[in-house]
Each structure stands twice: as C-alpha cells, then as structure tokens.
Amino acid sequence: MILSVRHLTKTYQLRMGWGGKRQIIQALREVSINIQPGTCLGIVGASGAGKSTLGRLVLGLERPDAGEIWFQGEELGHLSLREWYRVRQNMQVVFQDSFSAVNPRLKAQDIISEPMRNYLNLTNSEVAQQVMHLLETVGLTASDANKYPHQFSGGQLQRVSIARAIALKPKLIVLDEPVASLDMSIQAQILDLLLQLKQQFSLSYLFITHDLTAVAYLADAIAVMQSGEIVESLDTVNLNQLSHPYSQQLIAAQLPSHPSDRKSFPSNLLPNSYEQSSISS
C-alpha cells in the first residue's frame, strides 16, 4: 500500500464577524482511503466536501485532529520538520491554479529545477539537462525554458507545474483539481499527459476533483465525499455502480457533451435548500 489514511478527522474554528462567537467547522469525519502503488484514486465531491483538506493533510501542510496517515509503511503523524523534508521527496503536488502555484519572477527552468537543487547533488549542467528532458516529457520545448509564467497559457504553465512535480520521480502525486481552470480541449490534453506519466513512471495519484468524467478517464478507484465524509467508494471506476443518493446527485449534475442530450434533474435528488423552479429556470 503506497498510502493508507485511517479515520482522519479535522475541525476548524471560525469567528463569525467582528467579536462574534466561534463556530466549529467539521472538515473531515473519520475519513479512510487506500491507494495501491501505481494506481489513481479519484476523490469526488462538491465544493466544501473536504477534498482539498484531505489533500493538505496527506501532504503534511496541516495536522489532523485524529487519525493516521501511512505512506510507504511509515506513519506520518509524529514526524518532525526534518523528517517531513525527507518524505516530501517522494510526495509531490499539482495545484488547480498554476499561476499562483509558481513564483512569477522565476523562469520555467528555475521553477522545474528547484526540487532538484533542494534534494539532488547535481552539477549545473546535469540540472540543465534534466530540465530539458522534463520539458520534452510534458510536451514543451527547450525554448520554453527561458520563459516566465506570464508568457505561458494556462495549459502550458500547468505542464510546467507537472514537470516540477515529477522532477524527483516521486511515488505519490496529489492532484488538486489540476484541470478545473482549463478549457475543455486543454483539460483533455492534460488528462492524457497525466495518464501517460502514470504509466511511464508507475506513479500513484490522489486525484481531487468535482468532475466525474475526468475521474472515469484517469482513476482506477473512486471515493465520493459529502460534508467531510466518504459516503461511497468503489475499487473500480464504473459510474453506473454508484448508488448513494449523493453520488446520483453528482451524476445528474454533470453537463452533457451536447445540449440536446440534457436531462432534467431528478426531483428526488434535489438538495433540501433548492426548489425545482430554481433549477429549471
């Protein structure tokens, strides 16, 4: 097992307004997931379901209130900062917003080479050679090495972020909505690239998304999150086998490939806070 999350719980305390009372938000409730080596687990749910919180806890960016995170047979809950430095060499991330995920003052070659300079004992020429190879691997060219982030399109910059993520040949990559901000045609290209890299380098993915279509294409297993809980999970990605009412609600909310294929939203799946008229209007 490359990653095993057991009964993970996380709460936040928010102050409601100036001088207001503190409100406790339960972000995760007893969440458990497993990822086998070389596979992709798709975590699906609406905004606020707790998907990104789960990703941050796995990456060690935040600490859970309770539960365990096991990575490559090692429990991560009590690691020191120095020990986390060692673990992160094999655990990388690709964020949704590629522009905010990079330093706008660095060229692409510096963005990609940063992990190598932090972890690997390479000469400047070896680093430059690796950068060129990574650019080619993600579908960019050597001329892109000297470009700044603002000179790339969103899809191209996401390729730079992916190149940085695979620079150290990690075992696990957390994909936090990696295609959500891209055009449909570019989304397909990035998903193709991620699938190719997964097969080429035997990568394991924790794929966080709200897009069931993307999960069906990239993932090997699926878990559906609602209000901080896993309400349904499958070891295979067959959307027809999803049976939980919330899973059915997500399926019904997916946009069709063509407007003429649009179906009415089943009334029995509407959230309590919505009226049928507001959906159909």
UniProtKB/TrEMBL annotation:
SMART domains: AAA. This is ATP-binding cassette domain-containing protein. GO terms for molecular function: ATP binding; ATP hydrolysis activity. Residues 257-281 are annotated as: Disordered. It holds the Pfam family ABC_tran. The keyword Phosphoprotein does not apply. It comes from the Bacteria. Residues 3-252 form the ABC transporter domain. Keywords: ATP-binding, Nucleotide-binding, Transport. Residues 265-281 have a biased composition (Polar residues). SUPFAM superfamilies: P-loop containing nucleoside triphosphate hydrolases. Gene3D superfamilies: P-loop containing nucleotide triphosphate hydrolases. One of its GO terms (biological process) is transmembrane transport.
